[in-house]
Amino acid sequence: MKFNLKKYRIGFSLLLLTVAISSCKKDLVEQNKSNFVKSTYFTSGSQAQTFVNGIYRSLYFFQNGDAYGESPFITIELFAGHATSLGQSVNNGNVINQRTDAVNPGFETVWSNCYTGISNANIAIANIPAITMDATLKKQVLGEAYFLRAFFYYHLVRLYGDVPLIVQPVTVSSSDLYPSRTPVAQVYDQIISDLQAAKASGLAETNTTGRVSIGAVRTLLASVYLTTAGFPLQKTANYALAAQEAQPVLSEYTLFDKYDYLHDNAHKNQGELIFQSQYLVGVMTNSIPQLTVPFNLLVGSYNDHLGAMIPTNAFFNSYEAGDLRTQERQFYFSSYPSSVDGTTITFGEHALYKYFHVESALGNGQSDENWTFLRLPEAILTYAEATNEASGPTPDAIAQVNKIRTRALLAPLPAGISKADFRTAIWKERYHELAYENKAYFDIQRTHQAYNVTSNTFSEATSTANEQNVTFKTQYYLWPIPQREIATNKKLTQNPGW
119-131 pLDDT, tens per residue? Predict the structure, then answer.
């Protein structure tokens, strides 16, 4: 019988499902397997692994974008309000100034690509159990599929709120072809269930090839628990669960002794890097450095210098005095030799050196810098915040945060710090250590607090203007459901204010 991979539809989007040979390292070679014959495909362990490898390819959309720098990882970050973008991008400018609307193409990009990944994961989870194959490998590839499905739903539920929850393959005759929205609580229940299944699947504790590991599962699950302890669900009992999940991760990974290792080729998938999207010249490249160098300054041998995400000076100045991360060519840089004649170019602003890719800048301009979704400092800060909320500032939680501060050449937090002061210190470290890594906007959502970089305090997000004199609008706690989806699927409703 024919197994139709083309008929999984969320509203207008026909999610054409493709299978990739692999998303890890040099095996990133795509093959289109649409409309393959089910009876001859899901029959072996190698086919199961091949299919699951293909799900990883959906991760690439976060770095996809156009010539104006309208890439999902840029869009998510601009919602936090601490970056500027080049004037050519109308959509980026509208996000920064909180005047965008539901037809912004970025909203459709994230929605459709997440559901593409989910639909492939559903097919894998539904069909791999019946394959006669090595039992250990079967558990592991299913664990990867469960993790990836949870990963995509976690982005959807935070960005859009109630979203259609679909966990079975969908055909043209399925009732889920035009689905209704599912309450946030139920979506989170499924995410947690999937991550628990992944945790029990026998995956390796760590993985240096780019595949999902137990460390990645635990870090993501800890993040989910931390998020659900805040808004909108406010399940405060989940703080303890977040700390419980994050704690084992802290001994499985190690902080780098150089920030350079966060964005070079030699240290991919190692040290503190828990889960990354994999890139390789000749197979799959990206525009991360081009998007984050200053606009129209010839820094590196790139075809484009887009300036799509540039930190505000006020945010840069919010770091503590003496913080290593603010020193030249640590997290930021303000000058660099010209790719044309080697003379020093002074930017007049601070660009993100943490995304500068020396190999491609000095080479042919083809970047295969990995994008990091999860790394050890996030697990540390999740553990510390969750522990503090559950039981106050314990010596271990303080010591963990001080590891990050010590690396940044900052004084340690005192042993007698109060619960309130420790909370604030952790939140600041999340902003400063995880800067521009797509964490700040989600922190605003779950805490309803925004970092006022001028006063160096946190306050209600909807009552405090940021450094660009924009006050966060309540409607911006969620993205709009893409207008094209609503126009096609009458069961979908729009989020408040959109």
Answer: 999 999 999 999 9
| Cβ neighbours for 357, distance < 8 A, ≥ 6 positions apart | 263, 264, 288, 289, 300, 367, 369
* Strand positions, DSSP E, 297-399: 310-311, 332-337, 344-352, 371-375
Provide the CATH topology of domain 9-203+480-488.
1.25.40
Q: Classify residue 346 as exposed, middle or buried by CB count within 10 Å of its CB (0-12, 13-18, 19+).
A: exposed
What was the pLDDT predicted at 143? 98
Strand partners, 13: 10
Question: What pLDDT does 69 receive?
Answer: 84
Assign residue 287 a region (left: φ > 0; alpha: ψ between -120 and 50; beta: otherwise).
Answer: alpha
**CA atoms lying within 13 Å on the CB side of residue 414:** 5
Q: DSSP for 153-216, please give it.
A: HHHHHHHHSSB----S---TT-GGGSPPPB-HHHHHHHHHHHHHHHHTTT--S--SSS---HHH
**Interior angle at CA 215, CA 209 and CA 216, nearest 5:** 70
CA nearest to 68, candidates 40, 92, 38: 92
Q: Which of 142, 436, 194 is nearest to 315 (CA)?
A: 436
- The answer to whether 371 and 72 have CB atoms below 8 angstroms apart is no
Kindly state the tokens that stand for 486: 């609503």
CA distance 319 to 456: 9
* Tokens read off for 399: 């010591």
| Type of residue at 190 | Q
Q: How far apart are CA 78 and CA 85, in angstroms?
A: 8
**C-alpha to C-alpha distances, 197 to 102, 191, 243, 373, nearest whole angstrom:** 35, 10, 19, 20
Domain ranges of the chain: 9-203+480-488, 287-367
Residues of the chain predicted below pLDDT 50: 1-36
Among 379, 345, 424, CA closest to 272: 379
Q: Is the dihedral of CA 353, 359, 363, 364 positive or negative?
A: negative
3-state helix, strand, coil in the chain (%, to 5): 45, 10, 45
* Its pTM surpasses 0.70: yes
Q: In which residue are the tokens 């229940």 written?
A: 189
What distances in angstroms separate CA 190 from CA 151, 181, 195, one per listed residue?
Answer: 11, 14, 9
| 251 DSSP 8-state letter | G
Tell me the chain's radius of gyration from C-alpha atoms: 22
- CA 70, 74, 78, 84 torsion-angle sign: negative
Q: What is the pLDDT of residue 199?
A: 98
Question: 305 to each of 18, 32, 302, how far by Cα in Å?
Answer: 32, 33, 7
- How far is residue 466's CA from residue 311's CA, in Å, rounded to a whole number? 13
**At CA 479, angle to CA 475 and CA 485, rounded to 5?**
125
User: What pLDDT is attached to residue 174?
Assistant: 85
Token pair of 35 as six digits: 């409309």
The span from the CA of 359 to the CA of 369, in Å, is 9
